[in-house]
Structure formats: structure tokens, C-alpha cells
Amino acid sequence: MATEKVSLSLDEELVAEAREIVGARGLSGYVNLALSHQLQHDRLSGLLAEFVQEHGPIDPQMMEEVRQEWLEPEKKTTRRIA
Q: Which domain holds residue 33?
């Protein structure tokens, strides 16, 4: 994937904390990954809003079941393909 150099203004405290975690040379990758995660979150939020608009509110019990599955992925069984 091609990259583009950009100039950003970020909170000093956030930059300092990120640099402590990834070092000065890893900051671009770290910010790129954070931006990717935020965009994914925004797309999913948009899909959810579209679903609710078309089909009405999601049943709270179903949402709770999904939350439990999301929070406890180790309960899922995985099958190995031979």
C-alpha cells in the first residue's frame, strides 16, 4: 500500500505516551493502525445506524448475547482443518 506524508497536530501527552510504547521510529505505524481501527469503528457504526433505520431497534436481549460472545471469545470452539 502506498504511503503519504502528512502533517498533524496532536496532543503532546498522547504523542509522548505513544512514543514510550513504540519508540520514535514506530510512531507512524502506531498512528496508522489507530486510524485504521477508528475508520473500521466508524464504518461499523454507520452500518448499525443504517440497520436500525431500516429494521428498527435491535432487541436488547440479542445485544446482550452478542456482547457476551464478544467479551468471551475463548468460549468459542475452533476446529482445525486437516
A: 12-74
Q: Which residues make Cβ contacts (< 8 Å) with residue 30, sequence separation at least 6?
A: 18, 21, 22
How many separate domains does the chain show?
Answer: 1
- The whole-number pLDDT of residue 31 equals 96
Assess if residue 54 is contained within a domain: yes
Give me the chain's average pLDDT, please: 89
Question: Distance between CA 8 and CA 12 in Å, rounded?
Answer: 12
State the sign of the Cα–Cα–Cα–Cα dihedral 35, 4, 20, 14.
Answer: negative
Residue 46 lies in a domain: yes
pTM of the predicted structure, to 2 decimals? 0.71
Sign, CA torsion 75/76/77/82: negative
Could you say which residues of the chain have pLDDT below 50? 82
